[in-house]
Design the sequence.
């Protein structure tokens, strides 16, 4: 069907009597009839990615009305959260037919999209025809086939092993941005070495999730994994937890003594979260342990040697703590053999759609609901600065799924998120108010756009006009 329509459009370009396609990109009656008669969804776009035609089948599949798309650019629809990736842009870049799976974000459907570029006589792309097939029924049929009892019995052990491996990977571990892909590259490179690892980043960026994932893919995955929050345990108790103690070491000690985390984690990994909260005395003991991987229990006289990999994390500026003599410089160099910095969510906004989509699906499945965010809600979520990072986003999505049914519109979002991107005008003068609105509006949109051309297209103004306004309002940003 796609090839037939694409060929039809190609013929229209070659025969002036058959179809008139001028600079406003009008589509012929014959093409309208073919497109609207199709069972599958069809979208026709011009060479700039502007939507010219959307058939009724597409609306039935996605729930998006033609008037919501026609006249908009595919990049705008992507930014508004209509879908998770633009196959049209891929086809334009590669100049060939591209077929990919695509998620329709606001109704949760998965569709198969094939995009065929149409070339003019100069072999330049003139427009593109997208063919969309709903995979919901097909996926449901495949799931039913997979429930074959004999097949389950035959591969029970293999399925269990696969399930165990998946359980080891955090459900909310997403890496899509350039920064996180670099982090993942480092992680893969160091997964099987014994060197100490220091993970830095704000609270809520996913440090513990990263370490849990590292353990699950490392050569130590079959050995113990312990997590110790150094800021949540009193100093006296933390020392005995880490190093263990001999009988009679202190009042209340078990008569048999007790092995510590380092001893129990032999051949495994110990994750010391909030390591900068360690007291000076414990910093010294940890440094000694890291130097030769042996220690003595509290109240003991015998050295115990273990094979343990130490991974530490902090949400503080460790160099400032060193300058203030609050953290030992020699310990810092011991734990900072391999440093990894996880950027805050506000600096990797290109992961927002994937994260929201992931959390939405997870909590819909968990609570057996079908609740989704509207495109304008996506806009609000994308614009917000997320001081609590991924943890805050996850909590917001879970709360929204629990408290709502169907589509979640901006009025159902928390006020601080809903109003974050709203310009604040502090003048009664109309001319000054318009200027202030323009300044704030352009500044806010700069956080979502990668180039001056994209921004001018989104705002519907000429590049020269936009550049002049940015100079007038002293808006400086490299685009």
Sequence:
């Amino acid at each position: 069907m796609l090839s037939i329509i694409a060929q039809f459009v190609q013929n229209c370009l070659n025969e002036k009597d058959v179809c008139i396609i001028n600079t406003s990109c009008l589509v012929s009656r014959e093409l309208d009839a073919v497109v609207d008669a199709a069972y599958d969804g069809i979208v026709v776009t011009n060479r700039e990615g502007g939507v010219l035609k959307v058939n009724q089948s597409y609306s039935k599949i996605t729930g998006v009305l033609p008037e919501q798309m026609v006249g908009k650019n595919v990049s705008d629809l992507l930014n508004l959260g209509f879908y998770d990736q633009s196959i049209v842009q891929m086809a334009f870049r590669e100049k060939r037919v591209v077929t990919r799976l695509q998620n329709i974000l606001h109704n949760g459907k998965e569709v198969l999209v094939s995009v065929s570029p149409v070339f003019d006589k100069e072999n330049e792309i003139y427009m593109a025809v997208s063919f969309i097939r709903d995979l919901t029924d097909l996926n449901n049929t495949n799931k039913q086939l997979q429930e074959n009892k004999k097949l389950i019995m035959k591969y029970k052990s293999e399925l269990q092993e696969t399930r165990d491996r998946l359980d080891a990977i955090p459900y909310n571990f997403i890496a899509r941005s350039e920064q996180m892909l670099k982090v993942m590259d480092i992680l893969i490179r160091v997964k099987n070495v014994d060197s100490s690892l220091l993970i830095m980043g704000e609270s809520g960026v996913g440090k513990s999730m990263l370490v849990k994932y590292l353990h699950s893919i490392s050569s130590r995955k079959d050995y113990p994994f312990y997590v110790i929050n150094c800021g949540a345990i009193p100093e006296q108790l933390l020392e005995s937890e880490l190093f263990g103690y001999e009988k009679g070491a202190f009042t209340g000690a078990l008569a048999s003594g007790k092995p510590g985390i380092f001893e129990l984690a032999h051949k495994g990994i110990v994750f010391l979260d909030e390591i900068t909260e360690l007291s000076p005395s414990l910093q010294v003991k940890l440094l000694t342990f890291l130097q030769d991987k042996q220690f003595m229990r509290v109240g003991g006289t015998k050295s115990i040697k273990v094979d343990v990999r130490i991974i530490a994390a902090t949400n503080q500026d460790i160099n400032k703590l060193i300058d203030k003599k609050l953290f030992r410089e020699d310990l810092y160099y011991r734990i900072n053999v391999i440093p990894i910095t996880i950027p805050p969510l506000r600096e990797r906004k290109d992961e927002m759609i994937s994260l929201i989509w992931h959390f939405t699906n997870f909590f819909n499945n968990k609570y057996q609901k079908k609740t989704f965010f509207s495109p304008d809600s996506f806009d609000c979520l994308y614009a917000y600065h997320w001081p609590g990072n991924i943890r805050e986003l996850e909590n917001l999505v879970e709360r929204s799924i629990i408290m709502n049914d169907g589509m979640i519109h901006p009025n159902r979002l928390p006020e601080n998120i809903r109003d974050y991107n709203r310009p604040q005008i502090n003048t009664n003068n109309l001319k000054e108010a318009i200027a202030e609105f323009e300044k704030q509006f352009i500044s806010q949109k700069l956080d979502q756009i990668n180039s001056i051309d994209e921004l001018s297209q989104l705002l519907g103004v000429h590049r020269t006009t936009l550049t002049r306004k940015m100079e007038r309002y002293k808006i400086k940003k490299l685009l």
In short: The domain at 346-418 is CATH 1.10.8.60 (Helicase, Ruva Protein; domain 3). The two ends are 41 Å apart (CA to CA). The mean pLDDT is 83.
